[in-house]
Design a protein that fits this description.
Blueprint lengths: L3 H23 L4 H29 L2 H21 L3 H33 L3 H23 L6 H16 L18 H5 L2 H31 L4 H29 L1 H21 L3 H7 L4 H18 L5 H27 L5 H25 L2 H15 L1
Helix pairs in contact: 1-2, 1-5, 1-6, 1-8, 2-4, 2-13, 3-4, 3-6, 5-9, 8-12, 8-13, 8-14, 9-10, 9-11, 9-12, 10-12, 10-14, 12-13
Length: 389
């Protein structure tokens, strides 16, 4: 694997996510229809994500699932490119959404196994994904120019095939016990600090889904920018992830998780306020550098923090709930809700509404973390984790 799987896979994500909402709009779908279609990958994750790992571990079919999922997703993407009515696009997008579900988890599992075998850090391997995303989104935006076309869907399929070829000879992962998602739910329900983190993760992903839904439309239709500028904006966001991956560990040790999450929420709110205020597509590109201290920083803080707050127990349940709450349900609400609102309000007004929601999120986290003595809870969790080793 050596990182090439991440390189091509995130190249595929870069070919799809930034342009798909604009493509749906070009087919003259309504805002609600765009929101529904954009949300389908999150729906697939929310409905089936927590159970894929258990099935693959129980049956030892990691490599088979990886190959089938990559191939089928590529074929369904070509189907989307050939379709033109909402019904046919919906059918292909739904099929794509469910075939896509296990891929991110499988790549992470193989990367962790590679990290243990080669003593390379997981972040080092994952950084290849940011490189692939940066190059692909920038290149496709430049090729398509001002208008969006179905070319990006064929590029998406091509990148998935390259991912398949680069990972073809990987062995099956070692069989493990199936993840007992249900058994850990009672413990999670009683863990108020973890619930607070899940609530914040949900609200932040609602905001992030709005960026994927509306940023390209806002830059082209409202600010008069080009598809190339949209590609540059998302490429800058991908490049901004790298410092977060490299230095987050040091920041956590110096500032602590609670302070970093406060920084993340505050910066997210400022990001949306600027998107509402800015009247030039070129300046939106500059705002995308804030991706480093919003999405990327929260990702590298929240995953290990959830594990700590759960005390290392039910690790699969904990991470499945974090992923499903954020990338699943948060994505659904942001995509469908934002898409429905675009039938009645402008993209700028949508960004202002999200800014207000993030201000509420900041208050929720400040009050909740103080009431739950989150810093002390984290210090206690750290001591328990060290003692357990």
């Amino acid at each position: 694997m050596s990182g090439f799987g991440y390189l091509w896979f995130f190249g595929a994500i870069a070919a799809f996510n930034p342009y798909i909402a604009m493509y749906y709009r070009s087919l003259e779908f309504t805002g609600l229809q765009v929101g529904i279609l954009t949300a389908m990958p999150a729906v697939g994750l929310a409905l089936s994500g927590p159970f894929w790992g258990s099935v693959m571990d129980a049956l030892g079919i990691h490599r088979l699932v990886l190959r089938l999922a990559l191939l089928l997703t590529a074929l369904f993407a070509i189907g989307v490119a050939q379709a033109s009515t909402f019904t046919t696009v919906f059918v292909f997008v739904t099929a794509l959404a469910f075939s896509l579900v296990p891929l991110r988890a499988l790549l992470d599992a193989y990367a962790i196994a590679l990290s243990e075998h080669t003593h390379r850090s997981f972040g080092n391997i994952r950084s290849w994904g940011s490189v692939g995303y940066f190059v692909a989104v920038l290149g496709l935006g430049r090729i398509m120019g001002k208008d969006v076309s179905s070319l990006f869907l064929y590029a998406y399929a091509g990148f998935l095939i390259l991912t398949l070829l680069s990972m073809w000879r990987l062995p099956n992962l070692a069989s493990r016990q199936p993840s007992q998602i249900i058994d850990g739910l009672k413990d999670v329900q009683a863990n108020k600090p973890l619930i607070l983190l899940l609530v914040v993760a949900f609200l932040l992903m609602v905001a992030y889904a709005t960026i994927y839904l509306a940023l390209g439309i806002h830059m082209r239709d409202t600010l008069g920018g080009s598809t190339n500028q949209v590609g540059i904006a998302f490429a800058i966001g991908a490049a901004a992830e790298l410092p977060a991956f490299m230095f987050a560990g040091r920041l956590i040790r110096k500032l602590g998780e609670r302070r970093l999450i406060l920084i993340v929420i505050t910066t997210y709110a400022l990001r949306f306020l600027l998107l509402w205020l800015i009247a030039d597509a070129a300046w939106v590109i500059a705002v995308q550098t804030m991706h480093m201290t919003t999405f990327a920083l929260f990702l590298v803080v929240s995953v290990p923090l959830a594990h700590k707050l759960a005390g290392g127990q039910h690790p699969a349940t904990t991470q499945a709930l974090l992923t499903t709450t954020s990338f699943g349900f948060g994505n659904i609400v942001g995509s469908v809700g934002g898409g429905a609102l675009l039938d009645y309000i402008t993209t700028g007004q949508l960004f202002l509404m999200v800014f207000a929601m993030l201000c509420v999120t900041l208050v929720i986290f400040m009050v909740g973390s103080r009431a739950l003595h989150l810093d002390e809870v984290i210090r206690t969790a750290n001591r328990r984790m060290r003692d357990a080793r």
